[in-house]
Amino acid sequence: MFEPQYNAKEHEEEIYKLWEDSGYFNPDNLPQKDGKPYTIIMPPLNANGELHVGHGLFLTLEDILIRYQRMRGRRALWLPGTDHAGFETQVVFEKKLEKEGKSRFGMKREEFYKQVFEFTQRYKKLTEAGIRRMGASCDWSRNIFTLDPRIVEIVYDTFERMWKDDLVYRGERICNWCPKHQTALSDLETKYEEREDVFYYLKYGPFTIGTARPETKFGDKYVVMHPDDKRYKDFKHGQALEIPDWINGPITATVIKDDAVDITFGTGVMTITPWHDAADFEIAKRHKLDVEQIIDKAGKLLPIAGEFSGMHISKARPLIVEKLKAKGLLDKAKTDLHYKHNVQICYKCKTVIEPQIIPQWYVAVTKSIDGKPSLRDAAMHAVNSKQINIIPDRFEKVFMHWMEELRDWPISRQIWWGIQIPVKYCTCGEIIVDTKNEIVACPKCKSSELTQDPDTFDTWFSSGQWPYATLLAHSKKDFETYYSTSVMETGWDILFFWVARMVMLGLYRTGKIPFETVYLHGLVRDKDRQKMSKSKGNVVDPLGVIDLYGTDALRFALVFSTAAGNDIPLDEQKIKGMKHFANKLWNIARFVAQNAGSFEGDASLSPATDADRELLAELARVKEEVTKHLDVFEFHEAAQSIYHFTWHHFADLYIEASKKQLADDALKENTKKLLSGTLVATLKLLHPFMPFVTETIYQKLQAEKLLMIESW
Fold first, then answer.
1. Quick one: pLDDT band at residue 126, thresholds 50, 70, 90?
2. Residue 148 main-chain phi, psi, to 5 deg
3. Which site in 107, 301, 480, 533 is 20 to 30 Å from 285, CA atoms measured?
């Protein structure tokens, strides 16, 4: 009946098919049809690459919650999905094109989109196979993709509502521009990297100005200083100054006094380039100053740069410095000075961000809606009032701090892969939101000369609607039954990227919180707590270790040290150790099957010896302990508790004691009941964590039942 060793490979595929064929992943088919709904919407996995160990962690944690609540009698829905992942996927695909010596800029948009779609569909199938291999008991009948037409329709409906509520607008503001990928990025899609650059001091008429970017200075015609800086008290705000010689000849400069200038930095006076610097842009906006573009979207200088026109700024900088030096405009006493500063870079390619003023679509996050709180304020209230609980609670402060600093959210991206913005423009200046693509003439001037907006939505705008969109896409009944959802489980690193967006958009569209609890897990690192990377050779391939040790071993190793919000050290030896634990459980079951006979629950068990009493006391304690830990998301505490009970109390102590009791006719029958009852209880406690081995054992004991729907 039981092989000498548990071989995961021989059982896992068969067991998963048994579960899936039962129909019980769909909560509508569960025996407890009147149970209270319990909902988790799976964070959609990017359909652009293979399953990694971070996916393995969140799939394990969410499956533990779903299996636990299903066994508690809840109507547990875990809705799976995959993500087109806009910019991320386009970056991956463009790297593929680069290796083939191609570029999207040499392709038609329709052909590019078609190829990327086919690319994602291949990876979507691989991703879904990986989800199954992790043992995820999600409802595949509700599986959905972020580009599903039903999702797109809901995203468009939200945009149209926000347009009517004056919460989305097209504005010409400075944005984070990636010259490599030719798109704007949100603040969250950029990183800062400390670099050391030369700081140049240049003679600008009667002033000395400091800059690390001489290539931006061609159009500088405003010289700015702090109104309280006594060094420049003789210069008046608005005063015009003739600068007899600048990079390309004489210019007229205007004095601007502004509090934003740091008196202690450099000489306390600076010229500004509003088109290419966020701080300069704000100064220009405050004083209604002209703005002029110096650098194009590819990072090349424009004709205003004279002989440097068409040259990339990285090549032009040393040549510009030489020209300044030759003209006597470089302060020789302060040459070759270096300073460390944070440089903003693209989070994907590390190209230096070149700020540009480009029309973008924005969500007004701080604007009140008909006297009601703004998107931001409504989200903050939901967390402050504990309608939404964030675990661990230290991230509540982080959430609040970030929300307080929140600026309007740019939701347009200059990429081809994703949900295109449903807007048309007329030559008369009219902006037409056309979610059905039916409008052929301008409602204002009746012109048919309409231009489609080429931009796509930021991925986070569409995925920010995921909790309600996935349910509405399936049916109105699903939305009414399963929303608000119970838990959003995800990594702490996308608290701002995604969780905050879901709270804002969920409250806006439905008037309800999207989820009651946010559980934030840490990042999986190697055994030395180093970030995993292919270049370091320390990446743990989840499917590879499953082949070696089984899914349960990986799951239990991942969860054994998973305190909320803390990064998780993982190495192969820990996974190997959990394989031994799975085999220990198998051997316990083998022993019980050989000696106990029938297999009933533990409700009517009664002790006859001190060993019996100690076992039942420990079993009662561990059942209460594991339940308590799972109720408050203490996964590692629950795992460790059941691990120690199974290995030490049940196997090492009681099974050894039972061998003598089984030989005693007066104790034999009661000992059998205790062995079988304790085994069944142990399997139930372990099932959410190690579903394959526990269900395999259970099927061998009583094939007419499924452990996954047994009562906790």
1. very high
2. -55, 135
3. 301
Q: Which helix (H) or strand (E) holds 676?
A: helix 668-686
One-letter identity of residue 324: L
* Strand partners for 40: 78, 487
Place of tokens 């192969």: 572
Which residue, 313, 346, 379, sits at the end of a domain? Answer: 346
d(CA 425, CA 434): 10
Chain-centroid distance of CA 505 in Å reads 16
Flag whether 38 is in a domain.
yes
Look at the chain and report how many structural domains it folds into: 4
For 489-499, the pLDDT digits (tens) are 999 988 988 99
| Partner residues linked to 203 by β-bridges | 208
E strands, 213-355, are 222-225, 240-246, 249-257, 269-271, 337-346
How many helices (H) and strands (E) would you count in the chain?
21, 26
Q: What is the pLDDT of residues 423-479, one digit of tens each?
A: 999 999 999 999 999 999 999 999 999 999 999 999 999 999 999 999 999 999 999
Buried b (16+ CB within 10 A) or exposed e, 218-231: bbbbbbbbbeeeee
Q: Note whether 289 and 431 are same-domain residues.
A: no
The CATH number of the domain holding residue 232 is 3.90.740.10
Question: Rounded to the nearest 5°, which phi and psi values hold at 599?
Answer: -130, 105
Burial 102-125 (b: 16+ CB within 10 A, else e): eebeeeeeeebbebbeebbeebbe
- Band the pLDDT of 186: cuts 50, 70, 90: confident
Structure tokens at 104: 């999207």
Place of tokens 């100054």: 241
Cα separation, 127 vs 108, whole angstroms: 28
Least confident of 60-69, 587-596, 601-610, 615-624: 601-610
Q: Which helix (H) or strand (E) holds 452?
A: strand 450-452
Residue 37 and residue 482 in contact, taking contact as beta carbons nearer than 8 Å: yes
Neighbours of 704 (CB within 10 A): 5
Instruction: Tell whether 611 and 660 lie within a shared domain.
Output: yes
Domain that holds residue 293: 187-346
How much is the pLDDT for 605? 86
249 and 102, same domain (yes or no):
no
Based on the domain organization, do 210 and 328 belong to the same domain? yes
| One domain for residues 63 and 196 | no
Residues 221 and 317 in one domain: yes
3-state secondary structure of 14: helix
pLDDT at res. 283: 96
CB 463 within 8 A of CB 83: yes
Q: How far apart are CA 365 and CA 123, in angstroms?
A: 35
639: CB partners within 8 A, 6+ apart:
556, 559, 560, 689
Asked if the model's pLDDT at residue 333 lies above 60, the reply is no
Residue 169 lies in a domain: no
Domain endpoint, select from 346, 371, 405: 346
DSSP notation for 473-500: HH-HHHHHHH-SEEEEEEEGGGIIIIIH
Q: Which of 55, 13, 24 is nearest to 137 (CA)?
A: 24
CA distance 704 to 698: 10
What sign does the dihedral 268-329-353-355 (CA atoms) show?
Answer: positive
Alpha-carbon Rg for the chain, nearest whole angstrom, is 32
